[in-house]
Amino acid sequence: MLLRNSLWHLSGSALPALVALATVPLMIHGLGLEGFGVVTLITSVVGYFGVLDANLSAGSIKFLAEHHARQDHRRFSETFWFGAGFYSLLGMVGGLLLLIFAEYLLDHLFKVSATLHADALLGMQIAALGFALLQIQNYLLVVPQALQRFDRSASGEAFFGVLVNLVSAVVALRGGGISGVLGARVLVSLLNLLWLVWLMRQLAIPLQPCLPRAEVWRALANFSAHSWLSRTASMLHQYADKLIVGALAGPVALAIYTVPSQLATRILGLTYRLSAVVYPRVSALAATGEQHQLRVLYLDATRILTYLNCAVLGMIAITGEHFLSEWVGPEFVALGYPVLLLVTLGLLIDSLTTLPSLVNDGLGHPKISGRFAIARGLLGVAMVWVGTSQYGIIGAAGAHLLCSILMTLLFLIYVHGRTVPASLQETLRLCWAPSAYICGTALLLMLPIRWVLPISLSGLIWLASISGITLLLAGWFFIARMDERAVLLSFTRRLIPRASR
After folding, report:
1. Which pLDDT value is given to residue 499?
2. What is the pLDDT of residue 78?
3. Alpha-carbon distance 88 to 265, whole Å?
4. Angle CA(422)–CA(426)–CA(432) in degrees, nearest 5?
């Protein structure tokens, strides 16, 4: 069930991620380098306003999953309505603050040219409305996920994720400008919100409006207050480098930095979707006291996810120079490819903490992961600022990598055998080492092919195909167990009829 849910959750973001990458050149062509950089800055500012969020969604998934496992419908409804009220209020407050400070941010923080200032200001004001809608949308999405109905949530995410990228590209190419692109995204967000309301009615979830009792909202608020540290640190990690590069080097340098960074981040985000389903599963197992199953779940998931992350990011490193040249043009390769390699390696190191953090939080220890995450975020901001000041976008990417190595090592040593139900040595022996060895061997075999093939579209296709098939076969025969292969084959057979309809 867990592997099947992981595949459904992956399918919900795989196609949108590919479409998002494909539309980047169209966005740059329609908006120009500076316009694309300004859109990135605005979305980063909107993302930072999410610091107002106490991460109640993480606590909601945990407690909704637990109450559903115990068939406690009353607490389930109380938990939902407390979260729904919180995110409605958050959306209004955050949107209002964005409106108030929009002009100040553009005038005093970013180097936006006079020709784009009016359009950027209108775009920021439109994004304020989008912030309000997005808070409610994201919260409603946690309900089917808490029930482990990733098949239903994934279909909507795939459709609206593709739609928002296609509409944005069309608007940009037709001269809609910064405000037009952001307005299109807000409209799609509204449609997505309406669809989620319909989905909840279809799932027949018992959600009669009610006021939560003190014991319910206190438990949720207490858990989420600690989990908020992780969310805040995640936003520091996700947006700080872009804000710093934009402020110190300008929108054009930010666009060059964002393109390779977005490539690696979006593709790694696909494998994160596979691991995210562990969180409600761990919460449900903890509620029913199945400790042995927790340990087995953690080790199996770590083995598979480690290999997938190594394979995916290894593919990016090998094909990155070819891909950047064909994707956005040869002028991006000189600075973009070194950034891509540094960001890719940093993301691989960071990915080792994903499953331990999810298990740690699912077992009710968000304080530990939160404190490490906030330390990583603050240290990362300081290092990126210094790196950007001294070495530009290469320095920013290198600073991320150094911070990732240090904080990941400290976190893994601390949690294994303490809150995570496996020792560090056991995880290294059974999961990390075999996955790294098999993947590393396959990638080394690909290096001569990379040097032989020309940097062209045909070279990219051949290199990606040979590397992908080699990594897939290595994982199939040396990493996946026989029962896991059976689940993958069954899932593939179910998707083929859907695709042929």
Report:
1. 46
2. 86
3. 29
4. 105
- Rounded distance between C-alpha atoms, residue 180 and residue 195, angstroms: 23
How many residues are recorded in the chain?
501
Q: How far apart are CA 277 and CA 267, in angstroms?
A: 18
Distance CA 46, CA 243 (A): 11
3-state secondary structure 7-62: HHHHHHHHHHHHHHHHHHHHHHHHHHHHHHHHHHHHHHHHHHHHHHCCCHHHHHHH
Whole-angstrom distance, CA of residue 435 vs CA of residue 44? 34
On whether the CB atoms of residues 64 and 146 are closer than 8 A, the answer is yes
pLDDT value of position 236: 65
What end-to-end distance do the CA atoms of the chain give, in Å?
25
Q: Which residue is it, tokens 């990606």?
A: 464
**Look-up: residue for tokens 């032989």?**
452
Q: Three-class SS of residue 480?
A: coil
DSSP state of 352: T
Tell me how many degrees the CA angle 265-364-225 measures, rounded to the nearest 5. Answer: 70
pLDDT tier at 187, thresholds 50, 70, 90: very high
Instruction: State the chain's mean pLDDT as an integer.
Output: 82
The number of beta carbons lying within 10 Å of the beta carbon of residue 462 is 16
Residue (of 401, 263, 283) closest to 336 by Cα position: 263
What sign has the CA pseudo-torsion 312, 315, 317, 321?
negative
Per-residue pLDDT tens over the stretch 358-394: 888 778 777 788 788 888 888 988 999 999 999 888 9
Q: What percent of the chain clears pLDDT 90, i.e. is strictly above it? A: 21
| Buried residues in 72-110 as b, exposed as e (16+ CB within 10 A) | eeebbbbbbbbbbebbeebbeebbeebeebbeebbeeeb
| Structure token pair of residue 119 | 């359009």
Q: Do the beta carbons of residue 478 and residue 438 sit within 8 Å?
A: yes
Region of residue 480 (left: phi > 0; alpha: psi -120 to 50; beta: else)? beta
| Neighbour count for residue 24 (Cβ, 10 Å) | 20
CA dihedral 479, 483, 488, 490 (to 10 degrees): 170
**Tokens 């994707």, residue located:** 327
Residue labelled with tokens 């380098």: 33
What's the pLDDT tens digit per position in 31-71?
Answer: 988 888 888 888 877 765 655 555 677 778 878 888 777 77
On whether the CB atoms of residues 26 and 42 are closer than 8 A, the answer is: no
